[in-house]
Amino acid sequence: MNNKTYSLLWNARQLSTLVPRSRFLRIYPLRFCRPEVVHSKWNSRNCLLNGFGEGLQPSVRYLFQGVLKPVDGCTQTKGLSCAAVFKLDRVLCPRRLSSDSEHFLASDGASDHDLMKINSHHASSEDVLTKKMRPTPVNHKKLVQECNSLSDVLDTFSKAPTFPSSSYFLAMWTIAKRISEDKRRFEIQLMFSHSAFSQLCEQMIRETQIMHYDHLLFSLNAIMKLGVPQNTLMVQTLLRVAQERINECDERCLSILSTVLETLEPCMNVNALRAGLRILVDQQVWKIEQIFTLQTVMKCIGKDTPPALKKKLEMKALKELDKFSVLNSQHMFEVLAAMDHRSVVLLNECSKMVIDNIHGCPYKVLISILQSCRDLRYQNEDLFKSIADYVATTFEIWTVKQVTFFLMLFENLGFRPPGLMDKLMKKVVEDPDSLNIKNIVSILYVYSSLNHAHKDQNREFLEAMASAVTVHLHHISSENLLSIVYSFCLMNYFPLTLVNQLIKKNIINELLTSGDTEKNIHKLHVLNSCLKLDGSAYSKPVQIPLPQLPLPPSHPNDKVAEVLSHLLEGEGRFSRNVQLPHNYHIDFEIRMDNNRTKVFSFSDVDATSGTNMQRSIPGS
Fold it and tell me: How far apart are the C-alpha atoms of 216 and 219, rounded to whole Å?
């Protein structure tokens, strides 16, 4: 190659390094980024008029003005379309763009030795110039160390906007987590009113296609935590790009994406992203190595997940049981409840580990386990007894409110922990003034529902509870008063002061006209019957004028009757609405032999006179 050609090529190389080849780069061939969302009325003439000296300003004026304006229906607004061009300065490029002049050199007939020499000379010169021109990417950890508030982070950004913008959002959320709730709300208000916040949002939208996928998801999580509305253009753009690039999701990104989706409200983009996550999980479930990632994904996919995918995730968890830590076993209850998937085998194995490591288990974890068991309709008496015994053993470290909450959950599960209930009774007898109305209502409801009575302190307990109610008698609502007296009556205790207050005409009228009237009427009927039968403290029966209870539907079990007719091959083999002595009533009666192998017809004379016949109630 002659010197003139070499000089011409060298000058062209230097010019391409110092001046961008074009203000707008088509970067699809280099796989640098995907189409950017731009305005449908974009005019290329404006690019020439704007010139080349605007640094990192938007390529289309007013394109991202209003990035925080709501997007109707959580979807992109009208007038947005995909363009094959993307404005990008070299400083935003996370990796170096390849040269396109090599094709020209190769076609010019240059030898391989000359080509390597020229490229080496050019590369060294370009590296020196690039290092001088390209700023160092900002690190969010460094920002957290240098800044004390969200406004400080935005001030740093406004002085020298640097790639990636995700670092600024991560830094702001990290700072926000360290401060109190009141100060956080104030700082977030200042953040929204800061002049540089809109500029930061614009840069985030421009960078969505070129930043790493995990940075994109971390940014989305930080933005939502900072209180940016979900229906804004920036959030919806991040959701849309997360959909488009979901194939870049590795195990770490799966965990981040699952965490983000838990905080988002349903909308079109969220639903599409969640559906994409389910497809991805279905394909990669056997490749997941971390138990934390597996549980995070299981918790995120939701209750409406196809049963086949739930079963596959269950099998994966069972396969990894030997890797479960104590925390993993404790967390699995909540995970399965979030999926609405009752895996008895998995719950039994996790229960064993929870029982073996119950000491030191935090309050929130124990409550979460019991709530999950209730939601999953999972009964494990050994687990419940272990939790109740642990709470009773460490009774002094718990407040009355916490113990009451434990007992409420045990009552929901149909489990009576006598040791724990005796401990609370002793606490109430010693210090009844420490109870508030909410605690009193809950405690009486649990003890009457579980029919618990202490051998020695039962009377003292009831009197202490009654005295605690009397203190708040003039401030208690009518419904709470009814609930308290109703519970006392079920425990065969009739406090005179409370009953006289309840049966006042204005209290009764309020109960019959407000709140859950049907439930109130039922309780008043029970109370009236108890006072007539057991109220020995009253010289004459108390008459409370009450409306009749609503009659049950005339045919509430038509579907059951239809099924029984199909199973027993005819309606003559069972009887409906059978009235028994002492006001007992059953819906269906079937006559069978003692071994329950043969069904007799009600019209069969031999069956009615047989001695080997017994009554059977469906479901018993």
Answer: 5
Q: Tell me the C-alpha to C-alpha distance, in Å, between residue 384 and each of 20, 387, 409, 598.
A: 70, 5, 10, 40
DSSP 44-70: THHHHHH-S--TT--SSTTSSTTTTSB
Q: Tens digit of pLDDT for each residue in 118-175?
A: 445 444 544 544 444 455 677 888 899 999 999 999 999 999 888 889 999 999 999 9
Q: ∠ CA 10-12-13 to the nearest 5 degrees?
A: 65
Q: Before 164, cis peptide (omega within 30)?
A: yes
3-state DSSP assignment of residue 583: coil
Query: Between vectors from CA 251 to CA 249 and to CA 254, what angle results, nearest 5°?
Result: 60
Category of 589 on φ-ψ map: left (φ > 0), alpha (ψ -120 to 50) or beta:
beta
Query: In whole angstroms, what is the distance from residue 106 CA to residue 115 CA?
Result: 8
pTM: 0.69
Name the 3-class secondary structure at 216.
Answer: helix
| DSSP result, 94-158 | SSPPPPSSHHHHHHTT--HHHHHHHHHHHHHHHHHHHHHHSPPPP-HHHHHHH-SSHHHHHHHHH
